[in-house]
Amino acid sequence: MRDRLIAGPAILFLIEAAVRVFKIEPWMFPTPSAVALQWWTATPQLLPDLLATASAAIAGFLLSALFGAAVATALFLSPRADRLLTPFLTMTQNIPMIALAPLFAVWFGFGLLPKLLIILLFGFFPVAISALSGLKSTPAETSRTFIILGATRMFRLRHLDWPHALPAYFAGLRLAATYAIMGAIVAEWLGSEHGLGQALTMAAKSFQTPLLFAIILWIVLLANIAVAACRMLEKMLIKGGQSDAPVH
Amino acid sequence: MLQCIDLGFDYNGRTLYRDLSLTVSPGETVAILGRSGCGKSTLLRQVAGLLEGDGDSSWDGIRISPDLRLTSYVPQDAGLLPHLTVFENVALAAKLGGRGDITEHLEQVGLRDAASRYPSALSGGMRARVAFARAMMLARPILLLDEPFASLDARTRSEMQNWLQQLLQTSEMATLLVTHSIDEAFLLAEHVYFLDGTNASFKRCADRTAAEKYFGLLETFPDELA
Fold this sequence. Notes:
Number of strands of chain B: 10
CATH superfamily of the largest domain in chain A: MetI-like
Number of strands of chain A: 0
Shape of chain B: globular
Number of domains of chain B: 2
Number of domains of chain A: 2
Shape of chain A: elongated
Helix content of chain A: over 70%
Strand content of chain A: under 5%
Largest sheet of chain A: none
CATH architecture of the largest domain in chain A: Orthogonal Bundle
Oligomer: heterodimer
């Protein structure tokens, strides 16, 4: 931790020195101090964009979390649907979702709905796949024990399968949290009145590189806050020393 | 009374056992001895109604099925839920029709002070005790024990066997225990049987010597004890 606290400012100092020594144009690569100043001064005017992106990302993330959990539960409860649909669900991991985003703009225009749908498109699949894999992770012996003890399917889903699935589900949620910010930005690139994605496009078109960096800094911060919030919730909900699940 | 009549089970074309019949009265313990992989656990699952095979197992004439909630079960790994504390694991039995005071049951297994601990913070012996507390909370007429101490070290295993012996002496449950330990079988059970995985047969062991011969001389002198 101490090393990281030293390394961060040291890297920034080296970049600052290099930009100044080699006299790099600010529109090409601004100094970290210029970016910091821009970040500080531009934040009040970026606030509406920040709120637009964050609120859309949160709503889209919640939709992904809910739909992902619902679809995973349905597939888990229906082995036939699982056999039929899960291979397709897994295959979607290989599709660059960003390529599908313009379709939503064509179909639904440029309002909140296409924005939410794009975020859902980005976040739903990792959540559903991780949750399904987690639901299947209950040890067979534990399931057998509770069946013998007379536990119904719903009892096992509530007391065994979902608690066992939580670490994997949260691994999916952490991915979805980052993807939600990315989805919101992509949706705003495609066309929007507000949002950091739209501000990013404007700054790029007018070569306001320090502003561009300041917006990127906000996007990185938002993504980190989202992941940290997921981790906090995970720590609150997962008990008994269940370890972090790998991302599926 | 637990009654098993002509039980039989085939797995992957291999007959694990056939024509297996036994009865266990309330308060009585019957042990089934056998080597690993001979079908002991499968037999317990069939008795519990989890697996379909030949024959029938019934309690007072009623065919056993998990829905009827006639059986308690203690598996090898204790089958505790890792996200619940010791207290919560036992309390969960109340949602499966269990009754009684949870703290009292924990007191009975000597784990009152460990009530707020999670299974990951317990020793193997303590985990087994929690599983027994859950089984007692369920208060079912049949208790099925699937090598409950198999994963314990020799000393803890011996301590737990003595502890269980006392527990079973006061129990009104019909207990069916499967184990590969001759000592455990003869310490805990009134009647001991041997399940022979090589020819799917089921024999009664009159005493320790018979059981030791079944285990040790099985391949060399298969007819000597028939």
